[in-house]
Amino acid sequence: MNNHIELEGPRPCERRCKSCKEWKHHSRYHVKVGNSTIAKYFDSVCRDCRQRERNEKKNADRPLAIIRNRASVAARKAGTTTDFFMVQMNYRALVPLMRALMSEEGLCLGCGHAFVNERDIHIDHIAPPRNPKDWARLHARNLRLTCGSCNGTKSDKKHTDWLDEQEGARISNLVLQSKASENQGDGYISRSGEFISTADPQSELFSESDQEPESAPFHGGFQTSLNFDD
Ligand SMILES: [Zn+2]
Ligand SMILES: [Zn+2]
After folding, report:
1. Res 130 pLDDT > 90
2. Is the residue at 217 inside a domain?
3. pLDDT at 38
4. Are residues 122 and 83 part of one domain?
5. 7 CA distance to ligand 2 centroid (A)?
6. How many separate domains does the chain show?
7. What does each C-alpha distance from 23 to 4, 53, 164 come to in angstroms?
8. Chain segment 74-124, per-residue pLDDT in tens
9. How far apart are CA 166 and CA 111, in angstroms?
10. Domain identity same for 49 and 68
11. Whose CB has fewer CB within 10 Å in the chain, the N or C terminal residue?
């Protein structure tokens, strides 16, 4: 005989969500219209599920979302619209580039290192804009995507000067590398090209480029940091 009485059943104030199948208080299904504080009707799906749907939609094309975001920042500085930057300034052409750089194979064109995270992908002006509405230099044809440390070495230098400087750094790095292999175990070459001697305890201090990344790396769950609440 089974006289078991179900005590854990839904309460009269609860409804079942079509999406997550959980029973939740009816207030979790209220849909308000406009500025009204009174619920107009009940949704068949709970608010938590609706929020998750919105987040998934926004994260579906993360490279597009990032480029639109950068376009909107640039637009605000120039006193124009995001769409002007996407179409007239051709920022939409950056979307497939961003997608490639965010993939497993993405490398910085400047230094050949992998990006630390999506915020490490900087949009850099080859020729610096002369004023906030310098459309000739704000256009995507004057842009390139580099890592934060490459962008840092560029700042407002002339592009040609920066190219020569980078080539000089590459050569001196080769020299340092051969010196390091001659005195094996005495040091290593830092990312900025300096020879760091491990015999000197001061050198244990991290240089700027060796610091911990601000947010989680791409590979291994970077999606977790991409929540949009509205
Ligand atoms: Zn639900
Ligand atoms: Zn780089």
Report:
1. yes
2. no
3. 76
4. yes
5. 62
6. 3
7. 21, 19, 66
8. 999 999 999 999 999 999 999 999 999 999 999 999 999 999 999 999 999
9. 9
10. no
11. N
Question: Can you give the pTM of this predicted structure?
Answer: 0.58
d(CA 44, CA 18): 6
Protein residues placing their CB within 5 Å of the ion ligand 1? 17, 19-20, 46, 49
Distance 226 CA to ligand 1 centre (A): 20
Phi, psi of 167, deg, nearest 5: -65, -40
Range of the domain at 143: 62-156
- Which ligand sits nearest to residue 21's alpha carbon? 1
The most confident of 11-15, 137-141, 155-159, by mean pLDDT: 137-141
118 in the same domain as 66: yes
Determine, yes or no, domain membership for 216.
no
* 26 CA from centroid of ligand 1 (Å): 12
133: tokens are 């509405």
Asked if residue 169 and residue 141 are part of one domain, the reply reads no
The residue that leads in pLDDT, 9 or 100, is 100
Q: Which residues contact 170 (CB under 8 A, 6 or more apart)?
A: none
Give the end of a domain, one of 132, 156, 180.
156
Structural domain contains residue 223:
no
Kindly compute the dihedral angle of the four CA atoms of residues 81, 70, 222, 95, in this order, to the nearest 10 degrees: 90
120 shares a domain with 138: yes
CA dist., res. 121 & res. 66, Å (int): 10
**Per the domain annotation, does 4 fall within a domain?**
no
In degrees and rounded to multiples of 5, residue 33 shows phi and psi of -115, 130
* Closest among 160, 150, 103, 84 to 123, alpha carbons compared: 150
